[in-house]
Amino acid sequence: MTPRRILRRLSVAGVALVLLTPMTAAVAQAKTDVPKIAWGSCGTDPKLKSFQCASVEVPTDYDKPHGPTTTIALTRLPATDQAHKIGTLFTNPGGPGGSGVDFVQQAGQLIYSAELRAKFDILGFDPRGVGHSDPATCYPTAAAESNALANVPPFPVGAKEERQFIVDGAKVAISCRTTSPDRLAHYSTANVARDMDLLRQAVGDDKLSYAGYSYGTYLGATYAKLFPNKVRALVLDGTLSPEWYSGSNGDKAPVGVRLKQGDGAYDTYEQFLAECKKAGANCVLNELGDPKTVVESTMDRLKTHPVDVPLPDGSTIKVTYAVAVAVTFSNLYDPIGYPALADLWAQLAQLSSTSRAKAAVQAPQALIEWNRRQEDYTTSIGSALQPCVEAKQSGRPLSYPAYAAAADKRAPHFGAYRAWIGIQCEFMGVRDQDAFLGPWQNKVQAPVLVFGTRHDPATPYEATRPYADLYPDGRMVTVEGWGHTTIGKSACADKLTTDYLTQLKAPADGTTCKQDRKPFDPIPTGKKALNLLPQ
Questions:
Q1: Inter-residue contact 136 to 180 (CB < 8 Å)
Q2: pTM
Q3: Helix intervals (H) in 254-337
Q4: What is the C-alpha separation between 335 and 519, in angstroms, rounded?
């Protein structure tokens, strides 16, 4: 930030840290031209006929509002009742690194009620550095990235792999800061919030209506802090604690430990096994014995004896212990997918046993879907580097094995997996000086709707109440159930969202909703797990 900006300086160990005040954002924003949006076709794909697409230019650096620009890609699903339209509902699917464009085009017509879609244009945008916007990339081509990461496991197991994983993280960081240093230097969530405020003005809304999921709740908290007087309505689902993510609470552990995803995932994993046992014949694991005993013993065998699983295209995938944990974590997001997850573990149990003819096994659907998502998700490293440029790091990359071991004692399997997610950040060496790192109490006067799912693998439920309390009028709703966020899981939560956004009718703080079905209930014909959020 330039000296002309209003700053607050702190000195820590002799190093001056520049922290943005909310007034800083207002000063910069006042000097910035509002872009004009020229909506047009999204192409020839018939599935996109109902949508409109556009791109706009925003300042790369809000200190230089008339300097270089960054391209932001947008899409919208126009309100079906334009005569009675309230405005635009901005959305963010999380990540960080999730494509808002893809989210709205794939999910906008599915997850929002007809009443809500009548009154709002549903807008998705790819945050700066992500997807269809100017992406922050770490390699010159997608093929180069794929080749560089081809042999990197989801997380390391054992001292040898841990040493190599740290080296690989350093290599990734060097490649990222070499390939996209300028984009990374302006990549913070605070700048995404500033972009969103410009877009709010560009669509003609006096105040922001917003639905943010997972990391999107961090974006929501950042916007609320920088632009508290510009909030009409915020729906914040699957809360990411700003203090945990940013490190503003003084916790010096790596960001992957601070987020407590391992704890949330282990809790949800145990719930998956317990619900499977209760489901009897509806959960295939019961045919092999006690579900927890079957899965845990298979986990142990995979640590030393990975198995090759044939895929429908004739190729095979080697399922190691680390791969099995990663696939399980991914499939804990939506309870409608728990039967497929049980099928995966039943087949892995039999494949890893000497009594099973391996050639007779069909590839489990959960594994096929996970493998497909890995192949489809290009520039996955570059799209998810916000924590590297804005969150506080441990400064102790060689201590990650110890951090992971401690996390795994609290949350077996998943503690270690999630502890390693930020290792490349320790070597990045690029910081966005315009990042906002707290404090997080805000002055939003409007009621704010905050959802927390009791057993959420990615954003633990324990963060929900502290997050809601950041808002003067936070209305917390507990969804009793399983999975990440309420999307596609609770008609009760959907109705609360619709009433709040369309009528500004907020439920009482402490309201409770149930999910529409239990994890192993028979799946309705044609229904499947949405898996719409980044993982």
A1: yes
A2: 0.91
A3: 255-258, 261-279, 291-304, 321-331
A4: 5
Query: Which helix H or strand E contains 318, and what residues bound it?
Result: strand 316-319
For 457, the token pair is: 């693998």
106: which 2 tokens? 């794939």
CA distance 127 to 131: 8
CA distance 367 to 327: 7
Residues whose CB is less than 8 angstroms from the CB of residue 97 and which lie 6 or more positions away in sequence, other chains included: 130, 380, 383, 384, 385, 386, 534
Return d(Cα 365, Cα 309) in angstroms, integer: 12
| Residues 209, 214, 217, 222, CA torsion sign | negative
Please give the Cα distance from 219 to 241 (Å, whole number): 11
Integer CA distances (angstroms), 484 to 208, 251, 340, 491, in order: 25, 25, 17, 16
Percent helix, strand and coil across the chain, each to the nearest 5: 45, 15, 40
- Give the pLDDT confidence of 285-343 residue by residue, as tens digits: 999 999 999 999 999 999 999 999 888 887 888 999 999 999 999 999 999 999 999 99
- Going by C-alpha positions, the residue among 317, 338, 333, 363 that lies closest to residue 456 is 333
What does the pLDDT look like over 10-60, one tens digit per residue? 222 333 333 334 445 544 555 789 999 999 999 999 999 999 999 999 999
Residue 135 has which token pair? 């992406």
The torsion angle over the Cα atoms of residues 419, 420, 422 and 426, rounded to 10 degrees, is: 110
Count of C-beta atoms within a 10 Å radius of residue 414: 27
For residue 278, give the nearest of 518, 522, 517 by alpha carbon.
518
